[in-house]
Amino acid sequence: MLKEFIAHIQKTTQPLIQTIDPEIDSGSTFAVTSDGRAVELRAAIDHPDTLALHSLEALVKLVQTEAVNMSTPLYITIPDHLTVRCFGQPRPDARFFRQVYYEAKATDVPGFRDGFREQEKAIIELRSRFAPGEGVDYLLDLLSRISKDSGVATTDNGVSQTVEARQGIALKATVQLRPRVPLRPFRTFQEVEQPESEFLLRMDDEGNIGLFEADGGMWKLTARQTVKAFLETKLADLVTSGAVFIAL
Question: What b/e sequence results for 218-238 when a residue is b if at least 16 CB atoms lie within 10 Å of its CB, and e otherwise?
Fold first, then answer.
C-alpha cells in the first residue's frame, strides 16, 4: 500500500512534457510543473566563448584574418573608453542568438584620480602617468620653483590663485597660477593618442598640488572617437567592402 502511494506521488509531481504542433509554434517543447506553470524547454546553444583581448592591435589582427571567412558582416562598437566589442548578426537558426566574438579591454591604463598630492609624488605622476605636453612642462617648471623648505603662501579669489614662494631670507617670488591646465593622462588604449582635457589647478599652504577634472567627463567621448578612428584606419579595406561596420 505504501509502495503504491509513493509511486502515485512521484507520478503526479513529475512535470508534464508536451510538444506543441510544429505548424502552430515551430515545434516548441514545454514542461508543465506541478503548480501549473508552463516552462519552455530550450536546448543550450553551442557557440565559442568570447575571446578576451587586451590591445587594439590584437583585435585588428583577428578581424583581418577571420572576417574574410564570415558569411555575414562583423560589427565593432566602443561602449566605453576601456572596451571594444566585436560581434556578428543574430542567428535565426539559434533563436536569433548574437555571438560576441572578441572583447578588447585596456587593462594597463594608469588612469587619474582627483585630489591633492605632495610635490614629489606630483612630479613622479606627471612624468609617468601623463603624456608629454605643454601642461606637463608648465607644472614641472612650477614645482621646481616651489619647495616646502622655503615656505609657501597662497591667495585664492575663487577664480585664480597666487602663490608666494619664499626663497632664502629676503628674496620672494610671486607666481600667478593658471586656473586651468590642459593635460593628457593615460586613460585609454595605449595604441591611440590620449585624450586631452582641462584640469583645475590649486595649491595649498603646504605646497601640495591639486588637480581636478574640469571637462565634465567629455574626454571619455573623445577617447571613444579616437579609438573608432584608429580602427577605421586599420580596417579601411574591410570597412569599404562592407565586411566590417564600426560604431560608437
Answer: ebbebbbebbbebbeebbeeb
